[in-house]
Amino acid sequence: MPSGQDQPRDEKGRWVKGSTAGTVVGAAVVAGLVATASGAGTSASIGSALDAGASARSGSGNTAKSRDAAGRGDRLTAWERAGLKEIKRQVTHQLRCGVQSTGAVQRYFLGHPCDKLDQLLFLVSDGQGNDILGSVVWVTMPSTASAAELKSIEDVGGSGDVTQFGTEALALGGIKFTGMHYASRSDGRLMVVAETEPVHGSPSDALLKDVATIADLLPPL
């Protein structure tokens, strides 16, 4: 229950529910008063804050549009909407699940062999010196149940992994995937894992995660 000190009252002294709209209007009034007292510099600061909020909303919208494009299989549009450009890519088909895995994931494959394992390695850049290496693996299992069970094992930290193959093909053989920026899904018999790592520059954790969640929606190539 809100405290009496903070809870607003109506003109008759009754408690009323707080309103987001009221808060926004109140803030605008206060901002106007401050601007009047302090001059144009304060007005500019308020405008900058509003612009920052609009930029944040725009960024979220771009991520959603990127995910939509990725789900349709339009990879290049997905990157473009995220403010990125694909520099390199390498697709490998028919890898061996038992060989390209470790830990509990590998043990699961030994008892439940996969039907197919394909992989995409890609390098994207924001044009400002930040380059990101990404991996997507598509694992086709014998059944929906085995794909879901594999995902539940893969999602546990330290349980092993479906490992990446051929990073040297992108001249990036020294890059190791850590699982810090990770997304996964299962869809029927298909289990998908996407991971990203920084290569050059200082891409933010949020961007690395966004790229992984976008890549995870790509259909098999």
Distance between the termini: 54 Å
Task: Provide the gyration radius in Å.
Answer: 24 Å
Order of helices and strands: HHHEHEEHEEH
Residue-averaged pLDDT:
80
Instruction: Let me know the largest β-sheet.
Output: 5 strands, antiparallel
Report the uncertain regions: 1-59
* Tally of DSSP helical segments: 6
Helix content: 40-55%
Number of domains: 2
Question: Any overview of this molecule?
Answer:
Residues 52-73 are annotated as: Disordered. The protein is of the alpha+beta class and 221 residues long. It folds into two domains: 19-71, no CATH class; 84-215, no CATH class. Helices cover 40% and strands 20% of the residues. It has six helices and five strands. It has a five-stranded antiparallel β-sheet. A hairpin with a 5-residue loop joins β2 (116-125) and β3. α2 (40-71) packs antiparallel against α3 (75-81). The longest helix is centred in the N-terminal third of the chain and has 32 residues, at 40-71. The radius of gyration is 24 Å and the shape is globular. Residues 1-59 have low confidence and may be disordered.
